[in-house]
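Run: sequence + 2-phosphoglycolic acid -> complex structure.
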Amino acid sequence: MEVIIKPDADAVSKEAAALFQRQLAQKPASVLGLATGSTPLGLYRELVHRHRDGHADFAHATTFNLDEYVGLSGDHPMSYRAYMRENLFAHINVRTDHTYLPDGQATDIAVHCEDYEDAIRHAGGIDLQLLGIGSDGHIGFNEPSSSLSSRTRLKTLTPRTIADNARFFGSEDAVPRHVITMGVGTIMEARQIIVLAHGSGKAAAVAAMVEGPITASVPASILQMHAKCALIIDEAAAAQLQRAGYYRWVYDHKPQWQRA
Ligand code: PGA
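>> structure
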C-alpha cells in the first residue's frame, strides 16, 4: 500500500482529485466507486471545480456508491442518493442513469444486492474506488467482524458508527440501524483503490489498517492485500503510524511518471 501524507485535508482532497482527473483522462468511460460522509466533501468540491474548468469530463463515466441506509428513499435528505446529488452529481455532467446507489427501499433486499453486484459486473467492474475509513476501521459499512470476502448485503451498524453518524441526523435515535453496503470482497475487486482520511479521530484506525495484522476486526486492513491501493491522509491522521518517515521518503523519491 502506498501511504501519502499531506499537510492538511485540503491537500488530501487535491491529491485525490488529481487521481480522479487522470483516471477520467485516460479512460473517459471509467467506472468510479464513490463514497459518502465528511471525508470526500473536499474532493467532490475540487472535482466540481475541475469539471467547470474543463479538466474533468464525466459524460461517459458510470458511478457506483458503496452504501445506502435501509428505509430511506432517494429523496430523503439524509439518504446517500441525496448527498451525492447535492455534493457532486448536480454539478457535473454525469448521466443520472449512470449513477448507481443501493436502493434503501428495495422490497427484496437480498435480490437487490445481487442485482447491484450484477450491475457492477455488467459495467465492466470498478476502475477506481474511493473509500473513507470509519473510526472503527470499517470500509463502506463493513463493520468489524465483516467477512473479508463478503459481497453486497444488509449490515447492522455498530453503536460506534451510529454515534459517529448522529451528527448528520441530529440524534443517535434518528440514525437507521441497517444499511446496504458493497462487501469487502466487492471492494477488493476494484482495479485501483484510494482511501482518504483526515483528523486525529482516524489516527488509530489508520495505523491499524496500514501496520496492524490483517483481521476482520479491522476490515480496512484487508487493503494490505490489494495490489494498487493508495492511502492519502493528513498529518493528524498519520500521527500513530510507526513508519511515517519511510512513507514520506518513498513519496519524495517517487518517479515523476508515477505521479498524478
Ligand atoms: P466520515 O466517514 O468520512 O464521515 O468520517 C468515513 C466512513 O465511515 O467510512
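>> summary
The chain has a mean pLDDT of 97. The beta strands are 2-6, 31-34, 62-65, 67-69, 99-100, 128-131, 153-156, 178-181, 192-197, 229-234.
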